[in-house]
Design brief:
heterotrimer, A: 254 residues, alpha/beta, six-stranded mixed β-sheet, four-stranded antiparallel β-sheet, 23% strand, C: 405 residues, mainly alpha, 72% helix
């Protein structure tokens, strides 16, 4: 059984078909790439998977059960978490607190116990914070746990988003342009980190990325979208030489 | 069903046309104020809480201008001309524009880089400042009102009979009249023969006569009332008609300014995309000022007209209720949408007078909020606006 | 064990302090008691509004409505019950009424909170304000509640201790929320709803919880007010009260409990202080109209100068504060110069304004000034903490986060 399966997933906004009958499967442990020119429907695909939008037709299965139409917070509980293309951290919260929010869905105490300031709630808080520190270490952010997340430099904010998403302990992690705005050195670091996350934590990863070198080096399988339609699917080598992909990116030969 | 019956019990359908006409007249004023809200919101995405207070100041300016023209409460000049009205209108519009521009310059512009909530709080602050600060300096007790003598159309009205009462009703009343008159006459005759009779302690024969007279009189009056309310009459004060015409003219001017002038086009560009307009060389600050001039002038005009033609007593909270209702009108029509504001204003006026007509005049201020909540929950974009989806 | 020991002792201290306040103030004049009670009630109101407004970021500005629901509901129950049989233990009855008031207001809070699921920012603000007005208008038209003339709540029961216990309880609950991981979803919803829900936070539940808790505290405060005053009218809970509570939250700093407490204490004491001022003739102090105008102009000038300093001066901090002080001094000079000039305007010179009438004016000016100079409020998001006090003395940086270890 595949971990995630999109089957002819389609969404229309008025007359615009943003995602048109896209199908692909992710196996557990995949490092999967989703690429395509601007406006191809990649982020919309993410929004479909994470429940921000409900597909007009088609199905999305996670671990065999259909999840389309489930609200985003429930999807996160099922084990799918994401980062955002335009960074959406909680700006006024500290780095550590951002990650604790990610871990919050696994808390075991009631709100009442927190309001009464019972030891159980405090213990839980401490536990979540320790866990969060662990994720900060993985993303190499352990030195700045108390900085306001809005004050971090861009590259660190992107890493913090990944740490926050990992804190939900997902089975499937969706990264929306994680390398955008990074310099080549940072990108190299990020690539290694993402690979390490997959290898050590066993998290399946789906990446949207514009940087071809990044995707080709990182991902093992790639889906290419153009104008909401899936135009190719396969290993990086295949994709690189696929005439449809080339024409989608470079235009038709005149 | 019982509730519905209860709701309409005691409603007199023949007053409905009058209430609807009143609704349109009131709605036109709401529309005028709503235009200010909607234009400012369109350009700055700010609910200009102080707009109602600008309206209030407009009414006071009209009051002071009328004093200046000689129509003080302690003097009794007679005869006024349209020129007086025009002077007052102009004074209100000019002063309100200045106030609006000052508010924008000194309170809203510094907040532009901050969150919309911060601007909103500032707007609330300005509104409170004008309400309570104004109360310290402006005459409020006893509540002054503009002398009706300044209104050259005072007391003039035109009655339109929309429907005549059915002849059967007239016949019935006519049939009862002779009996009533004779009963009354016989009682009077009895009274004249007993000059020392106490009207409250009559002997039996006198009492019987009195009761008969009263009973027949009551029946006759009932029939007459039925006759009077059987027809549908529409009374339109000339002043109110003038008010409506002036409102339409002002809206026409506004439409021209917004649609066919360079500043208007720039304003629409700024409303569409504030930053891009600035990048394209539109002087955003002067356009915002222009917007406040237009909106505040309209509010001033509306205030002058209501204060003069309706004669409502003034206080510094004069703008609160109309301000809220006009804001609701703007939201109802789709905030940021100019024709929407006019439509919303008319609907609000109608809604309010319908509530009054249904006998719930105590709730006439609540209806605005009820409409607002319903609109925002079910059609947040308003009737003519479009709601935007947040991009993820 | 140590934890429970500290907990036990601190609760005892709080209760004893409240009872001591009651014992100390109980014998004093009604006027003084009223000030103490109002301060306690406004602290509760401001902190509870801050929970909705500052911590959860749902910009609600109709808080007086919940206050009103609590007051009228419990006032009505007391009157109805007392008409049938006497109430023997008024203290216990009042505590029961606080709970009832809290529940009633929480239901109202639930209704008002529902739009927050669909609306944001300014629209939500207007809707909450509208709900407040609708509730007020409905109450005003119920003859059984006294209509616009008001309702006598008999028997009345003055309990300063309960008022302050409620205030402390409210502060404690909000502080506990922020001190544990459970507070973070509330802050996260304020910061970014989409990201919160992507992280598994149930945004709906968080918002509704905030409205329920916040309005429940306001309802309990309303119950206390009704029984303290013994007489309530719909105007006791008008839009101006909502705006006063909002001013407290905004002035103190949205999100800062400390800020709300301080601002609530100051702003609820201010009008009473003004009312207590006596002129040279022993009558209530009056201020000349031209002086009010001069003050307004002076504040305007000082604010403009400080804004200029904030935006254009980037030198050392000490000098910057020097500039602020300079701006204040200039303000004072302006105030005297302009008042000298304005004296010659006949209308202004003759006008005498009783000083307690300027309170709403002061609130309005405070609201505008704080927005122009420090929109995050005086305390911004900072909280009082012992480590903060220590830092004041040792000048060593101590990590500051909403959830501190």
């Amino acid at each position: 059984m595949s971990l995630l399966e999109l089957e002819r997933a389609t969404i229309r906004f008025g007359g615009l078909v943003a995602v048109d009958e896209v199908s692909f499967k992710l196996q557990k442990g995949d490092l999967f790439g989703l690429i395509g020119p601007n406006g191809a429907g990649k982020t919309t695909c993410f929004n479909l998977i994470t429940g921000v939008y409900k597909p007009t037709s088609g199905s999305i299965k996670f671990r065999g059960s259909e999840i389309q139409g489930t609200p985003p917070n429930k999807i996160a509980r099922l084990g799918i978490c994401r980062t955002f293309q335009n960074i959406r951290l909680f700006p006024a919260l500290s780095v550590l607190e951002n990650v604790v929010v990610g871990g919050y869905l696994r808390h075991h105490t009631t709100l009442a116990s927190a309001l009464a300031y019972l030891p159980s709630a405090l213990k839980e808080t401490r536990r979540l914070k320790e866990e969060a520190m662990g994720y900060l270490k993985i993303l190499d952010l352990q030195d700045v746990p108390n900085a306001r997340s809005a004050d971090l430099p861009y590259g660190m904010q992107r890493r913090l988003e990944i740490a926050r998403a990992m804190a939900t302990k997902p089975e499937l992690l969706l990264l929306d342009e994680p390398a955008a705005g990074m310099n080549p050195l940072e990108k190299q670091d990020l690539m290694e980190t993402v690979r390490r996350i997959r290898d050590q934590q066993g998290i399946t990863i789906l990446v949207i990325e514009h940087d071809m070198r990044f995707v080709m080096n990182l991902c093992e399988r790639i889906v290419v979208l153009d104008h909401g339609e899936e135009i190719a699917q396969g290993a990086p080598e295949q994709i690189r030489n696929d005439p449809k992909v080339i024409s989608a990116y470079l235009g038709e030969p005149v | 069903m019982t509730i519905a019956l209860h709701l309409v019990a005691g409603v007199e359908f023949n007053t409905l046309p009058q209430q609807l006409v009143n609704g349109v007249l009131l709605g036109a004023i709401y529309a005028l104020i709503a235009l200010g809200y909607t234009m400012v919101y369109g350009v700055l995405r700010l609910i200009n809480f102080a707009h109602g207070e600008v309206y209030m100041l407009g009414a006071y300016v009209a009051l002071f201008t009328s004093y200046f023209l000689g129509f003080r409460p302690d003097q009794y000049p007679t005869g006024s001309t349209v020129a007086n009205l025009l002077i007052m209108l102009l004074a209100s519009m000019v002063v309100c524009s200045l106030v609006g521009v000052a508010i924008e310059r000194f309170a809203y512009r510094p907040m532009r880089g901050h969150s919309r909530i911060a601007s909103l709080i500032t707007a609330i602050g300005v509104s409170l400042l004008l309400q309570y600060g104004g109360a310290l300096f402006l005459p409020t007790s006893p509540p002054p009102s503009i002398s009706e003598k300044v209104n050259p159309y005072y007391g003039q009205s035109k009655t339109f009979a929309l429907a005549k009462p059915s002849p059967a009703l007239a016949q019935e009343a006519e049939k009862l009249r002779p009996a009533t008159e004779s009963a009354k006459a016989s009682y009077q005759a009895w009274l004249s023969t007993h000059p020392d009779a106490n009207e409250f302690e009559l002997p039996a024969d006198g009492k019987a006569l009195k009761t008969t007279a009263q009973d027949t009189e009551r029946k006759y009056q009932d029939a007459k009332h039925k006759l009077d309310t059987g027809g549908v009459n529409l009374i339109i004060q000339t002043g109110q008609a003038v008010m409506l015409i002036a409102t339409v003219v002002l809206m026409g001017i506004l439409t021209y300014l917004v649609l066919f002038t360079k500043a208007g086009r720039a304003m629409r560009a700024v409303a569409h995309a504030f930053d891009s307009a600035a990048l394209m060389g539109v002087n955003v600050n002067s356009i915002v000022t222009f917007t406040f001039v237009l909106g505040s002038a309209l509010a001033g005009a509306g205030a002058m007209m209501t204060a003069t033609f309706l004669g409502t007593p003034l206080s510094t909270f004069y703008g609160l209720a109309p301000g809220v209702k006009a804001f609701v009108a703007a939201v109802l029509g789709g905030i940021g949408n100019i024709p929407g504001a006019v439509l919303g204003g008319l609907l609000m006026g109608l809604a309010e007078n319908t509530v009054v007509w249904l006998g719930y005049s105590n709730y006439r201020d609540a209806i605005a909020f009820i409409v607002l909540i319903i609109v925002l929950l079910f059609k947040p974009g308003g009737l003519m606006g479009s709601s935007k989806v947040e991009k993820v | 064990m140590k934890f429970w020991g500290i907990r036990f002792v601190s609760i005892i201290i709080a209760i004893v302090a409240c009872l001591a306040l009651q014992a100390f103030e109980g014998g004093r004049s009604d006027y003084e008691q009223r000030i103490i009670v109002l301060i306690g009630l406004y602290i509760t109101l401001a902190v509870s509004l801050n929970l909705i407004n500052g911590i959860t970021g749902q910009f609600s500005i109709g808080h007086a409505a919940f206050y009103q629901v609590g007051a009228y509901l419990t006032g009505f129950l007391t009157v109805t019950y007392f008409a049938k049989q006497p109430i023997h233990n008024l203290g216990a009855w009042l505590i029961l009424m606080m709970v009832v008031g809290a529940l009633g207001a929480a239901i109202a809070g639930l209704i008002v909170g529902l739009p927050s699921l669909r609306l944001r920012g300014d629209y939500l603000a207007i809707v909450t304000l509208g709900f407040g007005e609708i509730i007020r208008i409905i109450v005003q038209n119920q003859r059984i509640l006294g209509g616009s003339y008001g309702m006598n709540v008999a028997p009345k029961y003055k309990s300063i201790a309960l008022v302050w216990m409620l205030a402390i309880f409210c502060i404690a609950v909000c502080r506990n929320l922020l001190k544990t991981a459970h507070g973070l979803p509330f802050l996260a919803v304020r910061e970014d709803e989409v990201a919160s829900s992507a992280m598994g936070v149930n945004v709906t539940r968080v918002k509704v919880t905030a409205f329920l808790l916040g309005s429940a505290f306001a309802g309990a405060a309303g119950a206390l007010l009704a029984h303290f005053e013994g007489f309530i009218t719909p105007t006791t809970f008008g839009m101006d009260v909502s705006f006063i509570i909002l001013t407290m939250v905004v002035l103190g700093g949205t999100g800062s409990i400390t800020g709300s407490v301080v601002a609530a204490a100051l702003l609820s004491y201010l009008p009473e202080y003004l009312r207590g001022l006596k002129g040279p003739d022993g009558q209530a102090l009056q201020i000349a109209g031209y002086n009010v105008v001069a003050w307004l102009i002076a504040v305007g000038v000082a604010v403009a100068l400080i804004r200029w300093a904030i935006n254009n001066y980037h030198g050392p901090k000490a000098k910057k504060y020097g500039l602020y002080v300079g701006a204040f001094l200039v303000g004072f000079v302006v105030r005297y110069v302009t008042s000298f000039g304005l004296k010659f305007i006949p209308g202004l010179a003759a006008k005498l304004i009783p000083v307690d009438q300027v309170r709403m004016l002061i609130f309005a000016v405070a609201l505008i000034v704080i927005m122009l100079l420090r929109p995050q409020g005086i305390f911004a998001h900072h909280e009082f903490s012992w480590s903060w006090v220590r830092r004041l003395f040792t000048r060593r940086p101590v990590p500051q986060t909403a959830v501190s270890a």
